[in-house]
Structures are given as structure tokens and as C-alpha cells.
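We treat protein structure as text, and this decision shapes the records that our systems exchange. The remainder of this section carries one protein's record, kept here as part of the documentation:
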Amino acid sequence: MIPIEELLEAGVHFGHRVNKWNPKMAPYIFGERNGVHIIDIIQTLGYLEESYLFLSKYTVKGALRNSSSPSNPKTFGEGIGQKVLFVGTKKQVASIVQAEAENSHANYVNHRWLGGLLTNWSTIKLCIAKLKTLRASGLFENTEISSVNNSTKTSLVTTKKEKALLKKQYEKLKKFFSGIENMSDIPDIVIIVGQDCEMNAVKECQKLASSWRSDTNSTKGGNALPRTITILDTNCDPSLADLFIPANDDSTKSVELILKKLGEAIRIPR
């Protein structure tokens, strides 16, 4: 696991100002310094390990269920990653969320969370299908693409005005859906950075929790598994997360360090 010195150097232990705290985070706070809450970094390490082990065990089971060649690292990573969704739309963490998700062959949302992304999945799938159609046309990624079949272009566009409208639609779809373009179904695990900014995602996960648990029982047997892993700062609510890691969710170094460790659990071959 990560050395404590490295966690301290990344500022993982720095919370919010004391007047911004959520009392439910009290058990995970070591104290305060200069009006700022200090997170108990020993607990951070313990909860990070718990989340890491959960992901590791999940990926082993997932590899056996979904991959014909679990010993192949690339096949293994791609197959399991597609069942994981990273969520973090705060400006300072958006690029980190995207990078770690891509490294893990996982899905991500790093712009605004669109309402119904999980609870209205059938509609979202139509938007993704439209994005794929427009991307495959070759009309928008580059202005000159010799390899694109002209008949494909003609079937989509007949006038410059029509192309301009489609380009606008394409750019919007790409902004919001490119991170989940390869997500074939509702994810099994959602990793959330910045609970205070991602409450819509949290609520949708909670709404689907009962159906996820029912599906887990029917397909895998045993007790329902937790589905969300959340980095919780001192202004967050631990009761809204299945698994959580008490840590600074505003610092880029803190978020990057934690997501890299969670990503390792997804990628590691067995």
C-alpha cells in the first residue's frame, strides 16, 4: 500500500475549514490546525486498502465470468474496466479522472453529470449510438479524410447547413458521452470523486442499488456487494457511500494518488 509519507506529501490529510464540516465525518478526523480539519491518515490508509481489496476480488471474479483469457493482461483489463465508472466533474480533477479511467480501460464522466445517465439508461444508449454513428461517418474529426466512403457522408449530410447542425450535435455528444462510449450497460462499480459536486450521481446509484443487489443475488449468489467507492472529504456524508476513503478530494495530488492505487486493483492480472 502507499507509504504514509507519500500520503502526507500529497496533502491527503487536509480537510475543509472547520465551519464547513459534516458531523458524520467526525470519526475520521484527527483534529484541526489553523481552522482546518485534519483527516486521520491512518484511517485513510485502512479504508484505501479495503477498497483496493474489494476491487481486486471483484476483478478476479469478473475475469472468470467475462474473459476467455483472464491471464492476458490486456483482455483482462479491458473486460473488467468496462464494468467500472469513474465520476469526477470538478475542474481540478477532471483530467485525472479521465486519465486513470483510460489507463484502466474503464468508463468516466468528467463533465456535467446528465440526469438519468444511469436511471434512464435506455435513452442514454440512444445518445451513445448517435455519437458512434457520427464519429464513424468521418465528417467531423478531420475535414479531409480520404478513407471515408463518400456514400456514408452523403447519407448523413446533403447541405452545408445540415453539416453545421450535425457538427454542433456531434461536439455536444462527444463532450458528454465520449467517456462512456464503450459502456454497454449500467456499471457494476462507480468510483466517485467529490461527493458534494456529484450528488446527482450519488442519488442515481442509490436509486438503482436495490435492483443491483437483486441482480447480484440472482446471478452470483450470496449477499449483495457494495457498488460505490467514494473519496470523502470532511464536508461529505459517509452514509451515502458503500465503500469510502476519507481523504482530500480537492487536491490534484491527493486524488491522483488514490485513483492510481484503485486503478491498479482494476488492471492487475491474476
The mean pLDDT is 84. The radius of gyration is 21 Å. The first strand starts at residue 14 and ends at 17. Residues 41-66 form the longest helix (26 residues).
